[in-house]
Amino acid sequence: MDFSYKNIWTITYPVLISLVMEHLLGMTDAIFMGRVGEVEFGASGLGTIYHMVLYMFGLGFGVGVQILMARRNGQQQYKHIGLIFHQGMMIMMVLAAVLLLFSYFFSPVLLRSFITSEAVCDATLSYVRWRSYGFFFSFGVIMYRAYFMALTKTRILTLNGIVMVLSSVALNYVLIFGRFGFPAMGIAGAALGSSIAGLISLALMVVYTRYYTDYQYYGMFRWTRPSWSVLRQIFNVSSWTMLQYFLSCGTWLFFFLAIEHMGERALAASNLARQVSSLLFIFTIAFATTGSSMVSNLMGAQKQDEVMPLCLRIVKMSVLCVLPLFLFAAIFPSLFLRIYSNNAELIAASLPSMYVMLIAIPFGVVGFIYFLAISGTGNTRDAMWIETGILIVYIIMTYYLAFRIATDVAHVWLVEVLYGVSMLAVSLLYMKKARWHEKQI
């Protein structure tokens, strides 16, 4: 099991391309909405984050399943991988149905309780309503991605990401602006286009796995009844990652709801800064997610002494990849922001928040890699409690800055610096001092 710099990159770059493609999917929504109107642009940001809060239940569950499948891969228990996959997929489809019903009945009540602008609220609800139908497809894609990540065979993720983005861009253009005889749906068209793109992505994953991989070797496509012993193993790992991811994204939603109270312009400006932050952080997410699977594989192969050197190699590679974009954003911020909006006043209002966000990036880049390594060791409960403690401080500071102290939205963005520094310090301390080497799953 050779995780040299070359092999780390070989495994990571398809994941990176896939994440870049997914970011472009959200980026096209933002670009199109930036041309529709400022209210729609701000609402698309809120709608995306609200959808992500619910989506995080599925993503967190998938991360837990990925860790468990990677551990079995390291232990060379290959037939168990397919069994874990199918049991996890059953739970995912049930979860998608539950979240769709929750969104349909409760999202209007929740969003109208927190959003002060009637126009922003209506546009956000329109987006969320259509986007929620895509849970079934996106959760299926999560499971297939977890499967290939666990095996460290990630090449398909590049093609899948490209297909998803191309289909999303085409569908968004047609549905948002009403081309080729279709009605102009505006923000609802962006949500519907993204959902249909998810269906196309899932279909590609299924066809590729069935016809272009040795699926029988891993016990794939052998549908079985629910196995309570396997489900217990899955939930012992995944329940904590589900809760952790939900809390993390829920806090991000709270952050933007707090900013929304500062006005529609403040919300739109923060959405611009968020887009840049997401683009810069893609590299770290790719390396950290790959690293988590690698750590779990090493743990399964009883090579715990190689975990920390692996993390250091991943940190170096992530920093080298982020640095050029980081410097470009710092030196030419207006050029960067023009990608998302042609509104000169909005770009000017976004610059202070963007500069504060850039201060937080270096801490977040390193801290996130070590934090996901904790989950990779199987200590997902510890990872959840670490993030919970940090997020409690984050929420308190956001509340006081947004509602009691700050007069400028850039001041509220200072909590991102606090979050990055805390994540780095606590995660690094845990990996150096805690007894994670002994974890069995």
What's the helix and strand layout?
Blueprint: H1 5-36, H2 38-74, H3 78-114, H4 118-131, H5 135-150, H6 155-177, H7 187-212, H8 228-260, H9 264-300, H10 307-331, H11 333-337, H12 344-376, H13 380-405, H14 409-412, H15 414-433
Helix pairs in contact: 1-2, 1-6, 1-7, 1-9, 2-3, 2-4, 2-5, 2-8, 2-9, 3-4, 3-5, 3-8, 4-7, 5-7, 6-7, 8-9, 8-13, 9-10, 9-12, 10-12, 12-13, 12-15, 13-15
What does this structure look like?
This protein is mostly helical. Helices cover 83% and strands 0% of the residues. The chain has 15 helices and no strands. Helix 1 (5-36) runs antiparallel to helix 7. The model has no long low-confidence stretch (mean pLDDT 84).
Distance between the termini: 20 Å
Summarize the biggest pleated sheet. Answer: none
Shape: globular
Task: List segments where confidence is low: pLDDT < 50 over at least 5 consecutive residues.
Answer: none
Relative helix content: over 70%
Strand content: under 5%
The H/E string reads HHHHHHHHHHHHHHH
- Record field, number of beta strands: 0
- Overall pLDDT level: 84
Kindly name the structural category.
Answer: mainly alpha
Rounded to an integer in angstroms, the radius of gyration calculated over CA atoms is 21 Å
How large is the count of helical segments?
A: 15
